[in-house]
Amino acid sequence: MATVGYPHISLDSANVPVLTGTRMKVVEIVLDHLAHGTDAAEIQRQFPVLTLGQIYSALAYYYDHQEDLDQDIAQRLRKVGEIQSRLGNSSLASKLRGINNPP
């Protein structure tokens, strides 16, 4: 099987795929795409410093490494959940919930 190269993707010092020449992680592009159904053109409008080539390369990398990146995303979400449960509810969050859900 041929090796696939990603000209816009490199691994940082922690072996995390990033867009070459930036600090933007591939997973950040992917999360925007998955969570909001955002296409490459909309992602570029949100991040005008990125080229369409970089964005498409990030999405191609994701779909070629989907199992690994989905595990990374799940781990990140677990970590966020752990932090949120340790911190508990802030008084601001409680007030905002009260505004959005009146008695």
Structural overview:
This protein has a single domain (9-100), classed as Winged helix-like DNA-binding domain superfamily/Winged helix DNA-binding domain (Arc Repressor Mutant, subunit A), CATH 1.10.10. It is built from 5 helices and 2 strands; from the N terminus they run ββααααα. It has helices at 26-36, 40-46, 52-64, 66-87, 91-100, and strands at residues 9-11, 17-19. Strand 1 and strand 2 (17-19) form a beta hairpin. The longest helix has 22 residues, at 66-87.
How would you describe this structure in keywords?
mainly alpha, Arc Repressor Mutant, subunit A, 103 residues, two-stranded antiparallel sheet
- The number of helices is 5
* Average pLDDT score: 88
* % residues in beta strands: 5-15%
The CATH homologous superfamily: Winged helix-like DNA-binding domain superfamily/Winged helix DNA-binding domain
> Considering DSSP H and I runs of 4 or more, what fraction of the residues is helical?
55-70%
Computed structural class: mainly alpha
What value does the Rg take, in angstroms? 18 Å
